[in-house]
């Protein structure tokens, strides 16, 4: 969410429709949370029906994350400038339309174009949700509301693989994998109608201008890195793939220089670079990036391993992931409510080592049993991994923001979400090197035989990312962070509604 100066809404301006409006924005949040994970389960069916290449499979997942990440901060600022209700409804309409494009796509090229556009529309829709909550609810109710919001997001992430599996197995109207996208249509249409009727309009009183040069430089630099990583292996690493990867360094350097220049001029940079002088913030962003890298590599490889390597049905694959989600939620609850308040940073570091241990255990089991591995043996390593991930990710944002000045907390929060999404996009791109390269050329049947070996090999990189996160966490404060509760901070007080 972007940085801005906001004014409190007087008590008499409280919207009596606020709980109905909350239901609308929660539907949009749920759609996004489900859509991030639901596609993984559908990938084998998508590849089988459309003939998508491995690079296109990566773009179907990584392209969404990249577009979402690059548009998050800009989407928030557009809401501040032009009205949060307008931009939210535009995002919902665009997300619904692009879901239809994905569901009707007859080629992998159209599908991945639809997914990238869908990520861009989510970047318009999602940043408005918390802002609309700030506008709509008085301070005394926000704690309850943000608890509901967090539960819905967790439920969406938890339900995504299972929902996808049920839709594919159900094969409604013979549509197969397409239903994972088309299911968004009734939710999106209902959200549009209800949102137009129930959500009040609001703008920031003094919204920051868009840093268009920063957006262009950041997009160009990241595409120069991600595109060759994704396409290079499939094309045999031609000479041209090395040029863009090398060029990404000076382009991203130019982005940093421009952001510094804009800040010196008193402008509104896309990224407030001065935040990185604080060890807790810089270290926290490093952990977010590593967390995203690990997730991007693991979840793509794991889904293909279960369905193509082990022959699991989509429903069985979806159910086998439930212990991971439950363990992650349990770890998050323990971390926030019990452990971090007493033990501080060491809890997050224990989470990194626990997640890494889960991956090492999975390497041993997958390498030893190969394609003969039992269902319970694929589940056991996910429990320490999920617990470890929950211990890290739940308290991390509060710790990151603990030393951020009040006037920059909005930008810092938005950048934290962006870093995680960027890490996932780059992690999916790196799968070309750490996973797909081990499959080698050949028919899908031949690659399926190599799947356990390729999956076990990729897990070493996932474990390394979690171990690196353990080391980077030394940059965070050792003592338990004060209760920052970013949504409740004064500088994030809600703006005066317009209309």
Please outline the helices and strands.
Elements: E1 4-5, H1 18-50, H2 54-82, H3 84-104, H4 108-136, H5 139-170, H6 179-182, H7 184-198, E2 206-207, H8 212-235, H9 242-264, H10 279-309, H11 314-320, H12 322-343, H13 345-369, H14 375-379, H15 382-401, H16 409-439, H17 444-472
Antiparallel strand pairs: 1-2
Helix pairs in contact: 1-2, 1-4, 1-5, 1-7, 1-10, 2-3, 2-4, 2-8, 2-16, 3-4, 3-7, 5-11, 5-12, 8-9, 8-16, 10-15, 10-16, 10-17, 12-13, 12-15, 13-15, 13-17, 16-17
Could you explain how this protein is built, in words?
With 499 residues, the chain is mostly helical. It has 17 helices and two strands. Strands 1-2 form a two-stranded antiparallel ribbon. The radius of gyration is 22 Å and the shape is globular. Mean pLDDT is 83; it is low at 1-12 and 481-499.
* Mean pLDDT figure: 83
- What is the percentage of strand-forming residues? under 5%
Secondary structure tally: strands: 2
Distance between the termini: 22 Å
**Number of DSSP helical runs:** 17
**Rg for CA atoms:** 22 Å
Q: Give the biggest sheet.
A: 2 strands, antiparallel
Helix content: over 70%
- Strand order in space, largest sheet: 1-2
Order of helices and strands: EHHHHHHHEHHHHHHHHHH
Structural classification: mainly alpha
**Shape descriptor:** globular
**Uncertain runs with pLDDT below 50, 5 residues or more?**
1-12, 481-499
In short:
The chain has 499 residues and is an all-alpha fold. It has helices at residues 18-50, 54-82, 84-104, 108-136, 139-170, 179-182, 184-198, 212-235, 242-264, 279-309, 314-320, 322-343, 345-369, 375-379, 382-401, 409-439, 444-472; strands spanning 4-5, 206-207. α2 (54-82) runs antiparallel to α16 and α5 packs antiparallel against α11.
């Amino acid at each position: 969410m972007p940085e801005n100066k906001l004014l409190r809404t007087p008590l008499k301006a409280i919207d009596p429709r606020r709980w109905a409006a909350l239901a609308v924005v929660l539907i949009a949040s749920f759609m996004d949370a489900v859509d991030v994970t639901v596609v993984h389960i559908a990938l084998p069916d998508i590849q089988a029906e459309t003939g998508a290449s491995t690079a296109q499979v990566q773009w179907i997942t990584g392209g969404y994350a990249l577009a979402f990440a690059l548009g998050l901060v800009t989407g928030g600022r557009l809401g501040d400038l032009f009205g949060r209700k307008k931009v939210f409804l535009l995002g919902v309409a665009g997300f619904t339309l692009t879901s239809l494009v994905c569901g009707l796509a007859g080629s992998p090229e159209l599908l991945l174009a639809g997914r990238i556009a869908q990520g861009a529309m989510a970047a318009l829709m999602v940043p408005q949700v918390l802002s609309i909550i700030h506008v709509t609810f008085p301070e005394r109710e926000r704690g309850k509301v943000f608890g509901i919001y967090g539960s819905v997001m967790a439920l969406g992430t938890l339900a995504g693989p299972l929902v996808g599996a049920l839709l594919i197995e159900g094969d409604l109207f013979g549509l197969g994998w397409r239903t994972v996208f088309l299911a968004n249509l009734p939710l999106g249409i209902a959200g549009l109608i209800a949102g137009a009727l129930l959500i009040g309009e609001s703008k920031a009183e003094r919204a920051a201008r868009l840093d268009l040069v920063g957006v262009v430089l950041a997009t160009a630099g990241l595409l120069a890195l991600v595109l060759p990583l994704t396409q290079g292996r499939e094309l045999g690493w031609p000479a041209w793939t090395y040029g863009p990867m090398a060029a990404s360094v000076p382009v991203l350097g130019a982005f940093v220089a421009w952001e510094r220049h804009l800040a010196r001029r008193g402008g509104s940079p896309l990224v407030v670079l001065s935040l990185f002088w604080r060890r807790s913030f810089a270290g926290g962003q490093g952990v977010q990036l590593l967390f995203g890298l690990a997730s991007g590599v693991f979840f793509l490889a794991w889904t293909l391993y279960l369905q193509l390597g082990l022959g699991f049905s989509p429903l069985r694959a979806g159910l086998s992931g439930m212990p991971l989600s439950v363990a992650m939620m349990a770890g998050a609850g323990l971390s926030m409510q019990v452990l971090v308040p007493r033990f501080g940073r060491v809890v997050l570091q224990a989470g990194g080592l626990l997640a890494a241990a889960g991956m090492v255990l999975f390497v041993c089991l997958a390498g030893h049993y190969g394609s003969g591995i039992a269902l319970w043996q694929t589940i056991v390593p996910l429990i320490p991994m999920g617990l470890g991930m929950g211990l890290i990710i739940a308290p991390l944002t509060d710790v990151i923001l603990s030393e951020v000045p009040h006037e920059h907390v909005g930008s810092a929060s938005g950048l934290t979400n962006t870093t995680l999404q960027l890490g996932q996009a780059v992690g999916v791109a790196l799968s070309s090197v750490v996973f797909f390269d081990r499959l080698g050329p050949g028919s899908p049947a031949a690659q399926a035989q190599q799947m356990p070996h390729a999956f076990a090999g990729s897990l070493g990189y996932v474990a390394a990312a979690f171990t690196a996160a353990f080391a980077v966490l030394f940059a965070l404060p050792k003592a338990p962070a004060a209760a920052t509760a970013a949504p409740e901070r004064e500088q994030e007080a809600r703006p005066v509604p317009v209309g």
